[in-house]
Amino acid sequence: MTDINKQEKIARYAKAMGHPTRVAILQFLANQETCYFGDIHEELPIAKATVSQHLKELKEAGLIQGEIEAPKVKYCINRENWKLAQELFNEFFEQCSCKKGCCQ
Amino acid sequence: MTDINKQEKIARYAKAMGHPTRVAILQFLANQETCYFGDIHEELPIAKATVSQHLKELKEAGLIQGEIEAPKVKYCINRENWKLAQELFNEFFEQCSCKKGCCQ
DNA sequence: AATATTGTTCGCAAAATTACGAATAGTTTT
DNA sequence: AAAACTATTCGTAATTTTGCGAACAATATT
After folding, report:
1. B3-89 in CATH: which number?
2. Which residues have CB under 8 Å from B92's CB, separation 6+?
3. B25 contacts chain A (CB < 8 A)
4. What is the pLDDT of residues A33-84, one digit of tens each?
5. How confident is the model at residue B98 (pLDDT cuts 50, 70, 90)?
6. Domain spans in chain B, listed from the N-terminal domain onward
7. A40, closest nucleotide (Cα–C1')
8. What is the pLDDT of residues B40-88, one digit of tens each?
9. Does B70 reach chain A within 8 Å, measured CB to CB?
10. Out of A31, A32, A89, closest to residue B93 by CB
11. Does strand C come within 7 Å of the CB of B65?
């Protein structure tokens, strides 16, 4: 992956994580095996339409995935991309020159 | 730090990192000891007013800091918050249930 | 078949983000 | 003191984000 490509991926993931509600959703999902839309909605003080929208964005960013289990919809973390995001952020934060002992 | 507080901090940092240009700026700064506004602007294909705006946001999020070294302005990573962000993101990504071996 | 349940999509409004040129402010150099 | 240099702030326009209620779609239940 090129540097610029990595930057764009980081920005994409970061943007998806750039809202408290979405961080809360991710955290909730990360600590469940899987769960239904209703469970997520129950946790949050916002309208279901808004929850659905946040879920859509997280899904489009690739951090979560949903599958229909009629009549419910089951969401979970997208493990593959979660791992990728973790690696990208890790590498990103590690690269700081202050990690290399060259500054106070 | 409470869980919700952490979530908000993560969201705040993530939001700041949620734009390719800002990731590029952070990456550039992370690999310099320090540098001037002009150096950053030179790296980027956008107007200086826009660069300044992105820098302001990164500064307000706490990821960078700037100091006047007349007539220039010197920017650098805010090491303290960089470290905090690194720890928060690390903990966040680690918490996923898929890390704990309880799912495929 | 009618009704209920579960979520998504639509349509809208308010607010925030992004980007830029021009104007401005603060120093420094001439 | 004037001119030059560096970067921020202002004003504006276009786009995106956020949030909601209402309408809708799909399946399950009665």
Report:
1. 1.10.10.10
2. A23, A26, A27, A30, B6, B10
3. no
4. 889 999 999 999 999 999 999 999 999 999 999 999 989 999 999 999 999 9
5. confident
6. 3-89
7. C7
8. 999 999 999 999 999 999 999 999 999 999 999 999 999 999 999 999 9
9. no
10. A89
11. no
**How close does chain A come to B71, measured CA to CA in Å?**
24
**Could you tell me the distance in Å between the CA of residue B78 and the C1' of nucleotide C29?**
32
Question: Residue B84: in which H helix or E strand, if any?
Answer: helix B79-94
pTM over cut 0.85:
yes
DSSP letter assigned to residue A100: G
Token reading at B45: 């294909």
The arithmetic mean of pLDDT across residues A22-37, rounded, is 96
From the alpha carbon of A48, which nucleotide's C1' atom is closest? C7
Burial B27-55 (b: 16+ CB within 10 A, else e): bebbeeebbebeebbeeeeeeeeebeebb
Residue A3 and residue B23: Cα distance in Å, rounded?
11
